[in-house]
């Protein structure tokens, strides 16, 4: 399994050399901010799924018959989730909401 190379702190603290014809630093920083938000979202999703896995494993160990029914229910929920919204759609919606919330905060600070 591949390991995570960067944390949000690594991305936040990354500095780039500025050259005469380099990229616009503000644009790079804005893009890195969006990447950090995605990393945080992915981290939250991973933690949630690991918790669900642990819960289901404990459930299977305690009640094998009930666990079989839970696995079927989980598969049904997973199918319903996949059909209703993909992770990409969720992240896109989250991005729009963050722009609304943080955009208004920035405007109020000025």
From TrEMBL:
Coiled-coil boundaries: 32-66
Main subcellular localisation: cytoplasm
Source organism, top-level taxon: Bacteria
GO CC annotations on file: cytoplasm
A matching Pfam family: DivIVA
One GO process term, biological-process aspect: regulation of cell shape
Alphabetical UniProt keywords: Cell cycle, Cell division, Cell shape, Coiled coil, Cytoplasm
Localization annotation: Cytoplasm
Function: Divisome component that associates with the complex late in its assembly, after the Z-ring is formed, and is dependent on DivIC and PBP2B for its recruitment to the divisome. Together with EzrA, is a key component of the system that regulates PBP1 localization during cell cycle progression. Its main role could be the removal of PBP1 from the cell pole after pole maturation is completed. Also contributes to the recruitment of PBP1 to the division complex. Not essential for septum formation.
HAMAP family: GpsB (MF_02011)
The protein's assembly and partners: Forms polymers through the coiled coil domains. Interacts with PBP1, MreC and EzrA.
Family indicated by similarity: Belongs to the GpsB family.
Protein name: Cell cycle protein GpsB
